[in-house]
Design a protein that fits this description.
heterodimer; A: mainly alpha; 0% strand; B: alpha/beta; Rossmann fold; 7-stranded antiparallel β-sheet; 15% strand; elongated
């Protein structure tokens, strides 16, 4: 298994919220694509991913209340 | 994956070169004298793949890639093309060609940026098809992060475990497994989440309570601190490097100091030997003087003792004779025939003389017998003293031999110590002390800044919690806050993966490193374990549990670095060809053969029945008959770089495996 696959798989098999997992996958792909850059631009891309996946995520207290 | 063909045009000292490895290419040896272009073959390959040259000599720094002879022959303003093309074959049978070229105009330098093409052979009948986004494909096939572990200079092997390997090991492991990208992801996520919190505070009541400002201030301070931490870390690295170098020098100096001590000890020893030899000679002379007379008459004494012993044994010495009849005749003054024996008569005189002779014979016989024990003692003493002389001679021989050895070692030490002065030792020691002090200060500063950064992070987390607790929160602020919390949650999870992966990969590398290293070294039974601890310190323990990494010989250290490269290769999941420039250039000739064997072995027994490809660029000294004999078992292709002075260009000639070895 190659290095990137190693990290990608670790993220894929995470026992975490789906939204968190998907967000991390998106962010890691972004880092992979910019691996050759010393100071990659990241803020906009990160905010975009967070905005996109945070919609499907609930803070613990909300999850508790929903139960 | 294997390199099948390399074509070079107008690149540095190569006007036109083709290295065709379609037929048999597991072990390839390219032999060339210094300056003929070995390193530039490696540079050409790296340039073709990544557009840079990693191993140029300093004088090449600013010189253009284009072959100088080609420039001379071209007309003013003519365009010259430098190109390097590499054909690679994948384990699944697919083939690809990577071509990089750049144009230069005579008198005007580079005429344009380098152009890179990647051609993929999808079908032999249809030929190569050009693919777009060359960098992407190359990064996919031969990731640039793996380059230091598959295309490298032998110096790297030699240096890797020489000094403070922990940082290098950590960087290599994190980079190879791309965990460094996960680290970058964490850093980015932390900043973005913090920013979202701050914006949410601005949108809510937090602004009024100064929370947003506090968060912004803390974040600004944290960012400033992180920059300072990075700078400080670089300073620490610089000082560590200086300390390492000086330590290395001090190591030599310690050796020199030890050699000076040894010289003194040898001089004392030599003096002692001389004294011992002189005393032994004196003893010998004394012995000679005291035993010389006995020794000189030894043969005669021994002969006499022998004669007596023989005479005694054969009863030649008559027993004591007691002529009672003759005595009675004299006492009675009458012969046995009754004739009177008057005083003074001739008969009486004759009997008296006979008696006297009898007495003499008896005396002589007794004297002989009395002499025998004395003679035996005397000869035994002479024999014993001969042993003493032999022992003395042996002693002299031993001392003289010791003196010779001490003399030899001393003269070797003297020539080694020539030119090393005490001043140099003192200066290095003082520079080392200063560097250590600076390192200590920088490390203290770094630790403090890290502590402060931790404090700030905690403060920011507190502020963020306060923001979360704000009652009157606008919708927009609420949404931003939710995103910020989500960002923090992602960060928490990323941190947990990071921790888990680093441990996992480190342990896998350590297991593989131990496996490769133990297979490589001949005294593997004396190695108990090779491990990498949580701080990435590589440790080699003897079977008695002692740390022996610093005591490994140069060849063993090179094997450890090679084992590390192979372990990283395994983790990377790629089976790339290994191209090493002067792999054994820094090793003693007596271990070159051994390391050559180890290198050749690394190409064997890969899973799937295919072998690694190993291309070694060697000097003529490295490719000596011993090395050639050892490598011949792997049936290498051997090429010799020939430099044509008229053309000012190098070319390759294939040769028999042993024919090139000198």
């Amino acid at each position: 298994m190659s290095g990137d696959a190693l990290v990608a798989q670790a993220i894929a098999v995470l026992e975490a919220d789906v939204a968190v997992r998907k967000c991390l996958q998106t962010l890691f792909t972004h880092e992979l694509e910019n691996a050759d850059q010393a100071m990659p631009r990241y803020a906009a891309e990160y905010e975009k991913a967070i905005r996109r996946f945070a919609v499907d995520w609930s803070p613990p207290e909300e999850r508790e209340a929903a139960k | 994956m294997k390199i099948r063909r390399l074509e070079i045009e107008n690149y540095r000292q190569y006007r036109s070169l083709t290295l065709d490895l379609r037929d048999r290419s597991d072990v390839v040896i390219i032999v060339g004298s210094n300056g003929t272009g070995k390193t530039n073959l490696l540079n050409a390959l790296i340039w073709c793949l990544y557009g840079r040259e990693d191993y140029y000599a300093h004088q090449m720094d600013s010189s253009p890639l284009v072959n100088q002879k080609a420039v001379e022959e071209a007309g003013e303003g003519d365009l010259l093309t430098v190109s390097v093309s590499v054909e690679i074959a994948f384990n699944n049978g697919a083939e690809a060609r990577i071509l990089r070229s750049q144009e230069f105009r005579k008198g005007g330098g580079a005429a344009g940026p380098p152009e890179q093409k990647v051609l993929l052979l999808e079908d032999v009948n249809k030929g190569y098809k050009r693919v777009t986004n060359a960098d992407h494909w190359i990064e996919r096939w031969i990731p640039s992060r793996l380059e230091p572990y598959c295309l490298f200079d032998g110096e790297r092997l030699d240096n890797f475990f020489r000094h403070a390997e922990a940082k290098k090991a950590e960087d290599a492991i994190l980079q190879i497994a791309q965990i460094d990208l996960l680290k970058r992801l964490k850093e980015h996520l932390e900043k973005v989440a913090g920013d979202l919190y701050s914006r949410s505070a601005k949108e809510s009541g937090g602004q009024d309570r100064g929370l947003a400002k506090k968060l912004d201030d803390d974040r600004a301070e944290l960012e400033g601190l992180q920059k300072k931490i990075a700078d400080e870390a670089k300073s620490v690295e610089r000082y560590e490097d200086a300390v390492r170098k000086l330590d290395g020098k001090m190591g030599n100096i310690s050796e020199i100091t030890a050699a000076i001590k040894r010289r003194k000890a040898l001089e004392d020893q030599l003096e002692q030997h001389k004294q011992n030899v002189s005393e032994a000679w004196h003893d010998l002379l004394q012995w000679a003087a005291s035993t010389a007379p006995a020794a000189l008459s030894y043969r005669a004494l021994e002969g006499l003792a022998g004669t007596i012993a023989r005479a005694r044994d054969q009863r030649e010495i008559p027993p004591r004779v007691a002529p009672a009849e003759l005595v009675r005749m004299l006492e009675e003054s009458a012969c046995i025939c009754t004739a009177p024996l008057k005083e003074g008569s001739p008969e009486r005189t004759a009997i008296e003389q006979l008696l006297s002779r009898y007495e003499r014979v008896n005396e002589l016989g007794e004297a002989f017998l009395d002499l025998e024990p004395g003679l035996n003692i005397a000869t035994a003493q002479v024999r014993a003293s001969a042993q003493t002389s032999k022992a003395l001679m042996r002693r002299i021989d031993d001392w003289e031999h010791g003196q010779e050895s001490a003399d030899e070692e001393l003269s070797a030490l003297k020539s080694r110590l020539a030119g090393h002065e005490d001043v140099e030792v003192q200066q290095t020691q003082s520079a080392l002390n200063k560097a250590k002090e600076a390192l200590e200060t920088a490390t203290r500063e770094l630790d403090y800044k890290k502590y402060r950064a931790r404090e700030l992070r905690e403060a920011m987390a507190r502020t963020e919690r306060e923001i979360e607790k704000l009652d009157a929160v606008a919708d927009k602020a609420k949404e931003l806050q939710r995103q910020a919390r989500f960002g923090r949650e992602c960060l928490r999870v990323a941190e947990s993966i990071y921790k888990q992966l680093t441990n996992q990969v480190r342990e896998r590398v350590a297991v593989s490193l131990q496996d490769h290293f133990q297979r490589m070294i001949w005294k593997h039974e004396s190695i108990q374990s090779v491990s990498i601890d949580e701080r990435y310190n590589v440790s080699v323990k003897s079977r008695h549990g002692f740390e022996i990494l610093p005591d490994l010989a140069a060849g063993e250290r090179e094997c450890l670095a090679l084992a590390f490269s192979l372990a990283l290769g395994e983790i990377s999941g790629y089976e790339l060809p290994m191209v090493i420039d002067t792999p054994m250039g820094r090793l003693n000739p007596d271990v070159q053969g051994y390391v050559a064997g180890v290198l050749a072995k690394t190409t064997e027994d890969l899973e799937g029945g295919h072998n690694h490809q190993l291309i070694m660029l060697m000097t003529e000294t490295e490719y000596n008959p011993d090395v050639a004999r050892i490598l011949s078992g792997r049936h290498p292709r051997v090429f010799k770089i020939v430099f044509d002075e008229g053309e000012a260009a190098s070319g390759l000639v294939e040769s028999g495996a042993l024919a090139v070895a000198k």
